[in-house]
Amino acid sequence: STQDNAKRLAAEAAIAYVKPGTIVGVGTGSTVNYFIDALAALKQDIEGAVSSSEASTARLKSHGIPVYDLNGAGDIDVYVDGADEINRHLQMIKGGGGALTREKIVAAVAKTFVCIADTSKEVDMLGTFPLPVEVIPMARSYVAREIVKLGGDPVYREGVTTDNGNIILDVYNLHIDEPIALEGKLNQITGVVTNGLFAARGADVALLSDGQQVITRT
Ligand code: DER
């Protein structure tokens, strides 16, 4: 489909940011899967990868790309990941795929965050996509009540346990006109592990494709 073509073009454009001999930070999702497949072609030139999910780890290993533990990896030059929404400030909503915590950790370590996405992810204001929040299971009801006080409608993502053994609340109807402030407020709620607003630290580069061309935003 055009959207698949767009994801593949954006993913392939990210290869240009991968330096030889380095360990690449790899995100999670269908767009990143195209990036992993493209990375396989130059696996001789890279040291390996650090992954943000069991799913990406499995795909990297299926291509014979070594996967390192972040604690043993040292500096990560570039982190490549998708987004559910991205605004003009390169702030994002992530977590649609449920990997937001490890994604945010590897992104925090990486020097450069390259976001790859089809142009349907571009928004003026974040928040149409429900904001994923990873929560310690025993705190689910308390966190949900606190999120209601912030004006959101939290919905428990039934049947999903994250790689870290936590649950996810997807928060609808937030009016996110101050992404950095809301990210901080959500982090303050006891029991919240991670929220899917990547705003205080957004992407450094966004490669956005409509299936024909790739636009680079910085
Ligand atoms: O869950 C995530 O953060 C993913 O990166 C997601 O936001 C993008 O997934 P997609 O590439 O399958 O649209």
Summarize the structure.
One of its GO terms (biological process) is D-ribose metabolic process. The protein is an alpha/beta fold and 218 residues long.
Description of the structure:
Homodimer. GO terms for molecular function: ribose-5-phosphate isomerase activity. This is Ribose-5-phosphate isomerase A. Its EC number is 5.3.1.6. By secondary structure, the chain is α/β, with parallel strands linked by helices. The protein is 31% helix and 27% strand. It is built from seven helices and 14 strands. The chain has helices spanning 2-14, 30-40, 54-62, 70-73, 100-109, 140-149, 179-188; strands at residues 23-26, 48-51, 67-68, 76-81, 85-86, 92-93, 110-118, 131-135, 153-156, 167-172, 192-195, 197-198, 205-209, 214-217. Strand 13 and strand 14 (214-217) form a beta hairpin. Helix 1 (2-14) packs across helix 2. The longest helix has 13 residues, at 2-14. The two termini are 27 Å apart.
Helix % is 25-40%
Mean pLDDT: 97
Structural class: alpha/beta
The DSSP helix count reads 7
The major β-sheet equals: 7 strands, mixed
Spatial order of the strands forming the largest sheet: 3-2-1-4-7-13-14
Determine the N-to-C terminus distance.
27 Å
Radius of gyration: 17 Å
- Unreliable stretches covering 5 or more consecutive residues: none
**Which small-molecule species are bound to the chains here?**
D-4-phosphoerythronic acid
H/E element sequence: HEHEHEHEEEHEEHEEHEEEE
